[in-house]
Amino acid sequence: MNLPILSAAPLTMRALVQSDYGGAAALKVAEVPTPTLTPGAVLVRVMSAALNRGDWHLLTGTPYAVRLAGYGLLRPTRPIPGMAIAGRVVAVGAGVSGFVPGDEVLGEINRGGFAEWVCVEPSALAKKPAGLSFEQAATLPVSATTALQGLRDAGQLKAGESLLVIGAAGGVGGFAVQLGRHLGAEVTGVCSAKNVAGVRALGAHHVINYSDERLGEHKGRFDVILDMVGAEPLHSLRGLLKPGGRLVSGSGGQDNALFGPMIPIFRGLLSNLGSTERFVPLMNKPTVADLELLCGLVASGAVTPDISDRLGLEALPEVLDHMGEGRTRGKVVVNLSADSPRSPR
Ligand SMILES: NC(=O)c1ccc[n+]([C@@H]2O[C@H](COP(=O)([O-])OP(=O)(O)OC[C@H]3O[C@@H](n4cnc5c(N)ncnc54)[C@H](OP(=O)(O)O)[C@@H]3O)[C@@H](O)[C@H]2O)c1
To answer: Which fold has domain 143-281?
Structure first.
């Protein structure tokens, strides 16, 4: 039985709309029709959404391979960006079970998150525990699931092993440092000078400031490397592994505008031939079970999302445009309820 709508959605809503591939000029905040609830879907009032580097890839349409993945060859087919949301279910479509209006949820969605309302498939959503804020919950889809799957599944990280996180100050890396520690590893984070204290505060046992210290000085030291930057040559990273170590690669770098990470992944897999060390490509797979696990870790205090900025929709074009520079610290969230906190800009 479907329950009635908790609070009727208005006919129009505020959203960030992307008219083209490009930079900030391709984005504008506009009043657009509120999505209609369809059978098998739920209508969510988005309270917070998190920015991800993937939003920047879909803003610029690079690498070009992303356009072929159904996002639109010449211009975006789904014009509202935003893939990581937390909010409240306001209505459930015909045939939906397991959700009722009023449920607080989080999830990774196929665009549409930088808007006040979104219609999504319930299979994308986990229930948000009361102890988490909407902002905290919005940081978990994409970044925290990537970090978890990178360490637990791709890296097969075990307690007592040594872990190197490259990109430790970023969205994925900040979670990886905390999860690595939670899994019982000895964690070394790599970041620039300005983020050394922050990465240490996340729980890293050791921090390498890449402006001062070369990674090559740490040959044969790590069981698992999670590389979320893609700037170091493959042979240098392999040299940092202990025998039997795993190099988990989550980023192909920015070099190849056509194919993105595909060529580095191919090279990495080839390098496994005749070697006891493994190159393992990482591809985040959204699962409700992992979101629930991560919610539990945040609720228990084992993991604390590192929220570096809180924005309103108006600030998004400029901030998203700059994400490709790779200087974002922690997670940036956009708040979509009128009374939500925003950092002064
Ligand atoms: N495979 C997947 O499923 C998956 C999922 C999510 C993201 N990704 C990809 O993974 C990458 C990271 O994502 P993210 O969301 O964590 O990005 P992000 O939040 O934009 O990461 C930015 C961070 O990268 C750090 N950084 C830049 N150059 C560095 C270097 N040479 N060494 C160490 N750290 C460096 C910066 O720290 P400093 O300023 O201190 O240098 C900054 O804090 C992106 O390429 C993204 O597309 C892949």
So the answer is: Rossmann fold (3.40.50)
Q: Is the CB of 251 under 6 A from ligand 1?
A: yes
Q: Which CATH architecture has domain 12-139+305-335?
A: Alpha-Beta Complex (3.90)
Question: Would you call 276 exposed, middle or buried from its count of C-beta atoms within 10 A (0-12, 13-18, 19+)?
Answer: exposed
166 close to ligand 1 (CB < 6 Angstrom): yes
Q: How far is the CA of 150 from the centre of ligand 1 (A)?
A: 14
Helix residue ranges per DSSP H, the chain: 53-60, 65-66, 134-138, 145-148, 171-182, 196-201, 234-239, 262-270, 288-300, 316-322
What ranges do the domains of the chain cover? 12-139+305-335, 143-281
Q: pLDDT at residue 330 above 90? A: yes
Contact 284 CB / ligand 1 (< 6 Å) = yes
- 12-139+305-335 shares its CATH topology with 143-281: no
pLDDT (tens digit, 9 = 90+) per residue, 180-212? 999 999 999 999 999 999 999 999 999 999 999
106-123 residue pLDDT tens: 999 999 999 999 999 999
Protein residue with its CA nearest to atom 12 in ligand 1: 228
pLDDT at 1 over 70: no
pTM of the model: 0.95
Residues 59, 327: Cα–Cα separation, whole Å: 17
Where do we find the tokens 């001062």?
212
Give the distance (Å) from ligand 1 centre to CA of residue 190.
11
- In this predicted model, what pLDDT tens digit does every residue of 65-75 receive, in sequence order? 889 888 999 99
Whether the CB of 282 sits within 6 Å of ligand 1? yes
Residue 191 DSSP SS3: strand
Token pair recorded at residue 109: 């969605």
- What residue owns the CA closest to ligand 1's atom 23? 170
DSSP per position, 111-165: S--SBSEEEE-GGGEEEPPTTS-HHHHHTIIIIIHHHHIIIIIIS---TT-EEEE
How confident is the model at residue 339, as a pLDDT?
A: 65
Question: What pLDDT is attached to residue 3?
Answer: 43
Ligand 1 proximity of 190 Cβ (cutoff 6 Å): yes
Over residues 161-187, mean pLDDT: 98
